[in-house]
Amino acid sequence: xxxxxxxxxxxTLVACNSSKEKKKTDENISKExxxxxxxEKINDTVPYEDSVMLLxxxxxxxxxxxxxxxxxxxxxxxxxxDSEVMQQLKPLLKDVTITVFMGTWCEDSQRETPHLYxxxxxxxxxxxxxxxxTVSEEKTTPQGFEEGQDINYVPTIIFNKNGTxxxxxxxxxxxxxxxxxxxxxxxxxxxxxxxx
Length: 196
Fold this sequence. Notes:
The chain is of the alpha+beta class and 196 residues long. The chain has two domains: 1-39; 45-185, Glutaredoxin (3-Layer(aba) Sandwich). Helix content is 42%, strand content 18%. The protein has a five-stranded mixed sheet with strand order 3-5-4-6-7, covered by helices on one side. Helix 2 (69-78) crosses helix 4 and helix 3 (83-92) runs parallel beside helix 5 (177-185). The longest helix is centred in the N-terminal third of the chain and has 37 residues, at 2-38.
């Protein structure tokens, strides 16, 4: 009788584990299908010179790749935002969304993007309100994210509130990144480097 109970227990255990494994497999397949249907790749790379560049939608994790982490990490760590400006800037970032067009191949983008992340982290800005678009040397993406955005130079950092553009910083700040952001978000007169 004990042998029969033991065998029954083993069969039940195997059946339960098999069912759990099937469920896990089904969940993984579902995730893959959702990813395939979504077709929105994040941190996609393409060959560039002797390395790669990011192209399309990206996020901070993309800068952890070996091709980018040296300039991103050193730029982030070395930047120190003006604390007085940051106190004024922090409340103005509420309900603001930011779109950054940058090129991982571009020296200006390599300089300003880590600084922007440092400022936003210092201000406690929600990264979900930041859209990062990485472009080719022609300032394009395969998905056409740049269309209608007037992207001629990178980085271009666009500040929006309630669907309305408040202003943009183009290629480099006029004073400093955080001071230019403060001017834009507080409604002061501001002209980017290429404004007429």
